[in-house]
Specification:
Blueprint: H1 5-9, E1 18-19, E2 22-23, E3 25-26, H2 37-49, H3 60-79, E4 88-91, H4 94-109, E5 115-119, H5 128-137, E6 140-144, H6 157-160, E7 165-171, H7 183-192, E8 196-200, H8 204-207, H9 212-215, E9 219-223, E10 234-238, H10 240-245, E11 256-259, E12 264-266, H11 280-294, H12 298-317, E13 322-325, E14 336-341, H13 346-355, E15 358-359, E16 361-363, H14 368-373, E17 379-383, H15 390-407
């Protein structure tokens, strides 16, 4: 059995449109994926029939909203192998999840002279929060470098990990290069020196099965909109004992147990990290996205995406002046092709492709350390998902011939 991408596309209304007189070829999935009708319907149904605030409300609409909201939490948690739905905190996305850990865990556990180990593959969302923390507490940042194919130099870990290492934070999959990182090996090495492990799963949870228990991570952050869900909703998984030991990230309604004049006590996890009225529709939509993905054969989806990557690498390599960044093996990379073409600026490449109805991303992809490693300011990036087809890759390759015709 294989994925019928053509049939699958019928589930996604946005893919049925023309752009600039051509049928849309959407290859910007690493930035955000399109939403199936089932997700759109779930969000609409909540606002049309069940619109009420969650928890504490005794009336029927609040009960239905709460059931849908907490049911979504349970399904998203189960989807990543979490043992307890209470270990899953709703956030606005991966970025907020990482910032939550930097504030609620980092300020109490990282001090002057301590070290935080990152990699130069990181999205700025997994760099800047640690820079801010290090500046505040006097900690030091250290980095794992990458080789010419964009793979982490994990052989350097023994010299980088010391008794001063308090946190190791890295991505599951690079958004800029598609590199799949050896999470279990890195986590195991970190545990030997007693460091806490945070994984940026924004791209990882999208393209491969995730079992947070098996990975050995302590925290795993990911986003709904990268995996068919709505924007503005994400999740942070954390080991319960760590979450319970942490102070709240924000104060306000919902996250308290009792409030006195001079002090307050906190609600149980995960609610102590969810101050204020949450993104109820977003959580419900995220749950619907997980339900939708669960109907698809995961192994066949992964095989389809690998086949697309292999074909894309083959077709793009035929384009004169093409330079592709990242691992050569499709087994070591996710569904991302980051490239430059001779003297054509990536923004110009993207503009010309857009005129052909093809959506790609151009820029530094919030990964400026990666760009500096390759001595470029930007790349063009085509990123694939389960609903993309070989015909769309042919469209991309043909449109790149148009770019070459303009720039020579």
């Amino acid at each position: 059995m294989s994925v019928d991408a053509a049939a699958l596309r019928e589930e996604f209304p946005a893919l049925q449109q023309d752009v600039n007189g051509r049928s849309l070829v959407y290859l910007d999935n690493a930035a955000t994926t399109q939403k199936p009708q089932a997700v759109l319907d779930a969000i609409q149904r909540y606002y049309a029939l069940d619109n009420a605030n969650v928890h504490r409300g005794i009336h029927e609409l609040s009960r239905r909203a709460t059931d849908a909201y907490e049911g979504a939490r349970a399904r998203v948690a189960a989807g990543i192998g979490a043992g307890d739905p209470a270990e899953l905190v709703w956030t606005r996305g991966t970025t907020e999840g990482i910032n939550l850990i930097a504030a609620a865990w980092g300020l109490d556990h990282v001090g002057e002279g301590d070290e935080i180990l990152l990699s130069i593959l990181e999205h700025h969302s997994n760099l800047v929060p640690w820079q801010l923390l290090a500046r505040r507490v006097g900690a030091k940042l250290r980095y794992v470098e990458i080789d010419d194919q964009g793979r982490l130099d994990v052989g350097d870990l023994p010299s980088l990990l010391t008794e001063r290492t308090k946190l190791v934070a890295f991505n599951h999959v690079s958004n800029a290069l598609g590199t799949i990182n050896p999470v279990k090996d890195i986590a195991a090495a970190a545990k030997k020196v007693g460091a806490v492990v945070l994984v940026d799963g924004a791209q990882g949870a999208v393209h491969m099965p995730v079992d947070v228990q098996d990975l050995g991570a302590d925290f795993y952050a990911f986003s709904g909109h990268k995996m068919c869900g709505p924007t503005g909703i994400g999740a942070l998984w954390g080991r319960r004992e760590l979450l319970e030991s942490m102070e709240p990230y924000q104060g306000g309604g919902e996250m308290i147990e009792f409030v006195e004049r001079d002090m307050s006590t906190w609600a149980e996890v995960p609610h102590k990290f969810e101050a204020g009225t949450p993104n109820i529709a977003g959580a419900i939509g995220f749950g619907a996205a997980v339900d939708f993905l669960a109907t698809l054969p995961a192994e066949e989806v992964a095989a389809h995406e690998r086949a697309l990557m292999s074909y894309a690498m083959e077709r793009l390599a035929e384009v004169p002046g093409m330079r592709i960044y990242g691992p050569e093996s499709v087994e070591e990379r996710s569904a991302v092709v980051s490239f430059t073409m001779g003297d054509a600026h990536p923004h110009d490449i993207s503009t010309i492709l857009d005129s052909e109805g093809i959506a790609v991303r151009a820029g530094h992809h919030c990964a400026q350390l990666v760009m500096k490693r390759y001595n470029v300011s930007a790349t063009a990036r085509a990123s694939f998902y389960m609903y993309n087809t070989r015909d769309e890759i042919d469209r991309l390759a043909d449109a790149l011939d148009v770019v070459r015709g303009i720039f020579g």
